[in-house]
Amino acid sequence: MNPKNLKIMRLNSIKHILPVIILGVLFSCKDDGSGIHHNNITGKAGELVVVISNEAWEGIPGEVIRDNFAREHVALPQDESLFDLVNVPHEGFKNIFKSTRNIIQTNISQYADSSGVTFTDNVWAYPQATVIVQAKNQEDFVKVFNENKDKMMSYFLKAERDRLTMNYDKYYEKAVYNVLSDNFGITMKVAPGFQIADQKEDFLWLRYITPEIEQGIVIYTFPYVADDVFTVDYLVRVRDSVLKANIPGPAEGSYMSTERRIEQIYNVREHNGNYASEMRGLWRLINDYMGGPYISLAELDMANQRVIVAFGYVYAPSKDKRNYLRQLEAMIYSLKLNNQAENDKLSSQIKMGN
Fold first, then answer.
1. Cα separation, 6 vs 9, whole angstroms
2. Is 169 helix (H, G, I), strand (E, B) or coil?
3. Among 311, 290, 308, 326, which residue's Cα sits nearest to residue 217?
4. Does the model's pTM come out above 0.70?
5. Structural domains in the chain?
6. From CA 240, how far away is CA 245, in angstroms rounded?
7. Residue 24: its pLDDT value, please?
């Protein structure tokens, strides 16, 4: 099989079909560091249990919860929500629900001690994220919720990524890890089953293929020549030149490219203390009909005057793609520079100079 053929092909042996993640294997009874042993979390990735009365769920409180946590995920080719909500009335909140991974509990009552939001990890299971929203009445609930909605969203999204990261810290493709460390001066923990499809100077293509889906990570570097390399136009232009040269499609003359007919979702941030940016959007094949979502992390290696890019893509026709993309996100964000100490020293000197 040509490793550069993007077409999903049925593999010949079950030994080639390795799970992208092995969640739950070591979660059966865990110590969260407090000395208390918890049972493993249950439920599907991206699931969020909302403990709320039927009246409130059908009213304004339920509406604001759905508008935030069930809103459409950005940069996916089809409608998928940020979380899959499961509403449970207070009297139905039994043990079967208490072990779920993400929980919002509501307490809307004139007898509530106070109005506010509480964040607590690992109340009934591990690794679990729980939030309690207390309010005197429905109007007060909306006010409290809206004041804290961004914190709650970040809390649950981080919990989803941290669970994947925790798993990849234990189970990862060591061959890929070593190649990246030896040849690129970086490390990244990718899930078992990812194979090196192509390797060149300053370029590596990783793929995980099943009969139904493909996940890929393209890692490449380019010189840091000026601050404007961290703009959408520059990053997309470099990416598309790399993809055109190295990621051909199954049809003659086809190749991977950024879908430019929609806006790229771009955010500047720090990663490992280094200047970095994240981009999300869609990819497509030029001269063919394949496509899907992507997430990309570009990180400055100041010590080597280069930018390191990890571009993760999903191809999963007729499948939901949110969770596949989140798996790639967790892998990409495990990227670390071998010379981080040098970068920390340079960053410190720059800050002192300012």
1. 9
2. helix
3. 311
4. yes
5. 29-168 (3.30.379), 173-353 (3.40.1000.10)
6. 8
7. 42
